[in-house]
Structures are given as C-alpha cells and as structure tokens.
Amino acid sequence: MKQFLVGNRISLHGLRPEDLTVNSPYYSWLEDLSLDQYTERSYFPNSESRMRAYYDASTKNQSLILLGIFDNDSGKHIGNITFQDINWLNRRAFIAYLLGDDSFSGKGIVTEAVLMMMYYGFNRLNFNRIYGGVTALHAASMKVCEKVGLKEEGRMRQHFFRNGEFSDSLVVGAVRDEWMSEFGNKAKDLFQIPPTYQRL
C-alpha cells in the first residue's frame, strides 16, 4: 500500500475497508474500555456499521480527515489521528489521536504522529490554528501536548464526567508562525519526504 505521510519510524495514511472489519486491530481498540478512560468515544458497543459510517464520513466530509498510524518496520496499524471540525475559511482544525496498540506505548509514537500531523496541517493544508482538548486527569496526554507545542489556552470547568465525578478539561492550541518557529524543524526531520509548503 502506498503511504501518504512517510516518517522515519511511522507513517500516516488513509484507512482501507479491511482496516474496519471485526478482526481488525482498530475494531478491537473501540471495544477496549481501558483505552477510553479519558475520552467520550466508547459509550456504546462497537459495530462494523458504526465504524463504516465514520470511515465514510472521513472520505466524504470535507471537515474531517482520518489517518491511520502505521509502524514502518512491521506495517502494523497501531493508532489513528484526525483533524476534525475543519473550518477552511478561518483556517483552523481540531486534532485528536488514539494509540491503540499497547506494545508501542512509551516510545514517543504519539508525539511523532502529532508533530507530523501538525506540520502537514500548517504547511500542506494552510491551517493557521490547530487546537485540541484534554481532560485534566490525563497526565500522559498533557505531556504529549507540551512536547508538540499545544499550549494551554483555557479551562472548561467540570466538563468531563466519569466514574461519578466531574473533572475540568483543558483547551490547548497552536498558531502557525509561533509553532513553525519553535517546532517546525523538529517536525520536518521526522519525515522521509516532508509535505510541500502550500501557504497562500
């Protein structure tokens, strides 16, 4: 399969129908509630039709880009990363990610994937702002945000409800000129072939 964003350790590219079957790693991640302690993703049982509907939306909806994270050595599908709620006129997008394969945790894979995705967003898609959200309880995800230049911009109080308790969620974000100055070269070095510069 031809890869889209080719990195030194990982590559990001579109999913195929076979990546959505009940036997696929992706399907099992959405059934694993241990991966959903800090998100609003898996409130309901998974199904192929639900996954296919989301996949179809990503291929038809201009406000959603879904890419798989693949390990270059093994070719394994180990996670996903998305741009959601894309606003092309205001040049902004919400970024979200999932590392599904536990054997790759603690190796900096998510950090690399987010840096690559943000470089792609700022340089190829002409975004000026990329932002996200993370619950204040999720220390690991907050560390990722710090490492990739998604700075805390605000706090939504009692925004997330889990295990009978409310917790705050943090709004994090980056703007292109600041981010490229601080993180651009680091992100570019992660690619075998960096996305071409397309700023208008």
Q: Specify the number of helices.
A: 5
Shape: globular
Q: Give the H and E element order.
A: EEHHEEEHEHEEH
Strand order of the largest sheet: 1-2-3-4-5-6-8-7
What's the main sheet like? 8 strands, mixed
Total beta strand runs: 8
* Beta-strand share of residues: 25-35%
Within the CATH hierarchy, at the fold level, what is the topology?
A: Aminopeptidase
Q: Give the class-level CATH name.
A: Alpha Beta
Low-pLDDT parts are none
Share of residues in helices? 25-40%
How many domains, in number, for the residues? Answer: 1
User: What is the architecture at the second tier of CATH?
Assistant: 3-Layer(aba) Sandwich
Structure description:
The structure is a single chain. The protein has 200 residues and is α+β, with helices and mostly antiparallel strands. The protein has one domain: Gcn5-related N-acetyltransferase (GNAT) (Aminopeptidase, 3-Layer(aba) Sandwich). Helix content is 29%, strand content 31%. The protein is built from five helices and eight strands. β3 and β4 form a beta hairpin. α3 crosses α4 and α3 packs across α5. The longest helix is centred in the middle third of the chain and has 15 residues.
Write the layout of secondary structure elements.
Layout: E1 5-6, E2 10-13, H1 25-31, H2 48-60, E3 65-71, E4 77-87, E5 92-99, H3 109-123, E6 129-135, H4 139-148, E7 151-162, E8 165-175, H5 176-188
Parallel strand pairs: 5-6
Antiparallel strand pairs: 1-2, 2-3, 3-4, 4-5, 6-8, 7-8
Helix pairs in contact: 3-4, 3-5
